[in-house]
Amino acid sequence: EAGVAQSPRYKIIEKRQSVAFWCNPISGHATLYWYQQILGQGPKLLIQFQNNGVVDDSQLPKDRFSAERLKGVDSTLKIQPAKLEDSAVYLCASSLLGTGAGELFFGEGSRLTVL
Amino acid sequence: SQKIEQNSEALNIQEGKTATLTCNYTNYSPAYLQWYRQDPGRGPVFLLLIRENEKEKRKERLKVTFDTTLKQSLFHITASQPADSATYLCALDPPGASGSARQLTFGSGTQLTVLP
User: Fold this and answer.
1) Torsion over CA: B98, B101, B105, B111 (sign)
2) Which of A103, A108, A110, A111 to mutate to test the interface with B (most CBs of B within 10 A)?
3) CA torsion angle for B27, B109, B13, B41 (degrees, to 10)?
4) CB of A67 within 8 A of CB of A90?
5) Minimal CA separation from A76 to chain B, in Å
6) pLDDT for A64-78, tens place per residue?
7) Which end of chain B is more exposed for a tag (fewer CB within 10 A), N or C?
8) Which residues of chain B neighbour A104 with C-beta distances below 8 Å?
9) β-strand partners of A92
């Protein structure tokens, strides 16, 4: 079974530029998450989708971050304009269950460096 | 606000010994708790899940305990090996309203090094 796919793996941009990350979850997983992980910290949830709909985006900096999940499968996370503090690894995860106990399956992450 | 604390310092142990990692939480009443392993440059990988009504869970050389009175979970790796060296993350999910979507809140992780 294929895992969660993310691209690009690495991205270096200047501040105020824009960047987009792509995620393809495990087939059949209805729930998709984007987490931000800053060096030395645990992952922090940015947004959670259940199929096409947004379940929780309370910690997403909406003035610069946006995310969408088309047709309930792939998802894109965009940052525009980027700030220095956005340097982090952006992890996509998916799960079978959106409610109740369920493990998350993570991709390898997209490492963003903002100069 | 909710707070999760893991061992604040990296943990070094000798091969063959038992590693014990701690996860403490405050202002939380989690329905369950999960442990993940994260290697450098990789995404977290699920290891174990324990529910609030379970005291202990085992999987091969791994053991997790969950004390809701102390608000603490302990994660043990017995007969540790250098290949167990990684960062271990605990994650909690507070009980929400019926039907609400669940989400995990992660601790900052404990970096374990098993010395040969």
Assistant:
1) positive
2) A103
3) 170
4) no
5) 18
6) 999 999 888 999 999
7) N
8) 34, 36, 44, 46, 104
9) A34
